[in-house]
Amino acid sequence: MTVFAHPDDAELSCFGLLSKLRRQGWRVILVIVTRGENGANCAAWRRVGEATAAARHIDAEIVFGDFQDGYVTRSAELVSWMEELLDEYRPQLVISHFAGETSTAHQDHVAVAAAVRIAARRARWYPTLLLAEGIDNDSTFQPNWFVDITDEHATKMAVIRLHASQREKYYMQEDYLETRARKWSLNFPNPPDDPHRKGYWEAFVLVQHAS
Ligand SMILES: [Zn+2]
């Protein structure tokens, strides 16, 4: 289960991993806290349609929250809703934003990440929790968990392109996305001919690991 604030966050953060898990037979549920109605130049219905098309692309399920884009707070209401979702779906793995108070993240991301962490920590079966890299170059993001998504890169690009209403944003540009996906290969001391060198990666902070 992923829990992100807006309709394109999962696609930008961890869709390679989601596509990979889906191909391995995992059930994937995309939880989106708002409908992204404050995103530039677009009505909520359009963003909902884009996210739904992206989910359909890998045959994932999608759940929208009724929280207001731009005004999400770490409220008791948000934490309770997270707890209800966790109880209902019992995910083995939960993925959310990496967004601490000291990072440069969107305020909705900070609130959602905090609520997910509280709810996941309380869950009786203790799911694995990963926090995914955001769109900005955040110096406080120090990943400790990497996924080779080379085989999923084309799928990830395809679903990001489905978010046509966001096409003008800098972080939607293909060269930017390529650089982000490639840069983590520099973390591995592989010889130059190692295929991982040329690979695409997603990076996460592993917060808690299921036993
Ligand atoms: Zn967002």
TrEMBL record:
Transmembrane feature ranges: none
InterPro entries xrefs: GlcNAc_PI_deacetylase-related, LmbE-like_dom_sf
One Pfam family this sequence matches: PIG-L
Highest taxon, organism lineage: Bacteria
Molecular function per GO: hydrolase activity, acting on carbon-nitrogen (but not peptide) bonds, in linear amides
Positions in coiled-coil regions: none
Protein name in UniProt: LmbE family N-acetylglucosaminyl deacetylase
Species per Swiss-Prot/TrEMBL record: Paracoccus lutimaris
